[in-house]
Amino acid sequence: MAITLTAAAAEHVKNFLEKRGKGLGLRLGVRTSGCSGMAYVLEFVDASDPNDLVFEAHGVKVFVDPKSMTYLDGTELDFGREGLNEGFKFNNPNVKDACGCGESFNV
């Protein structure tokens, strides 16, 4: 079981945490949403939960709750720019289908 970040994603998170002035790392999770069933949730972590699974890549900690891990195992989080847009990209090997807008997925 693992969650990884590319160097670009880790650098983006580090820069944001530095500007924010606090935080232990990034929380990655899923919630029920959208037309395909599940959507990714990203938020900064100021206090960890004792049940969290914690992964570290390029000096950044990623916190995942055990329920979300079922859907996220093996996911690589990347950060990139395409034209004027920039954002996180989820390379999740568990995804079987995604909606056309890219907002949600199912496994």
Give your account of this protein's structure.
Helix content is 20%, strand content 45%. With 107 residues, the protein is of the alpha/beta class. It is globular. The mean pLDDT is 87.
Largest sheet: 4 strands, mixed
Overall structural class, as computed from helix and strand content, comes to: alpha/beta
CA-based shape: globular
Radius of gyration: 14 Å
Number of strands: 9
- List the strand order in the largest sheet: 3-2-5-4
Low-confidence region ranges? none
Give the gist of this structure.
The protein has 107 residues and is an alpha/beta fold. It has two helices and nine strands, in the order E-H-E-E-E-E-H-E-E-E-E.
Features:
four-stranded mixed beta sheet, alpha/beta, 9 strands, three-stranded mixed beta sheet, single chain, 20% helix, 107 residues, globular
Spell out the blueprint of helices and strands:
Layout: E1 4-5, H1 7-20, E2 25-33, E3 37-45, E4 53-57, E5 60-64, H2 66-72, E6 76-82, E7 85-91, E8 97-98, E9 105-106
Parallel strand pairs: 1-6, 2-5
Antiparallel strand pairs: 2-3, 4-5, 6-7, 8-9
